[in-house]
Specification:
The protein is an alpha+beta fold. It is built from 4 helices and 2 strands. The protein has helices at residues 11-23, 45-50, 53-58, 81-90, and strands at 2-8, 66-72. A two-stranded antiparallel sheet has the order 1-2.
């Protein structure tokens, strides 16, 4: 398994990138930790960004406000959605 960790200054860009994957059926939201949720489970990047506004305001002097962690198992590995959630929660 390979994990890629990236840092950036534009969290909205990361949200748009990930959200575009969801809209193209190339990704899905498995778990939302401390995120605002919608009744129907559909989101926009702006709605997702709203969950980060309090943290961004509290850390306005932070240069790299975004971290993006991509977990990429070997194609031969069998990794369930629950496995991915547990891995993400342990990081």
């Amino acid at each position: 398994m390979i994990a890629k960790i990236g840092r950036g200054s534009k969290i909205y860009g990361a949200l748009i990138y990930n959200h575009s994957k969801v809209l193209q059926d190339n990704g899905q939201i498995l778990h939302m930790n401390n995120m605002l949720e919608t009744p129907d489970g559909n989101y926009t990047a702006g709605q997702l960004l709203a969950s980060f506004v309090p943290n961004l305001a509290a850390n306005k002097n932070t240069e790299k406000t975004a971290i993006h962690i991509s977990i990429n198992p070997d194609p031969r590995d069998i990794v369930s959605d629950d496995d991915f959630i547990n891995i993400a929660m342990s990081i």
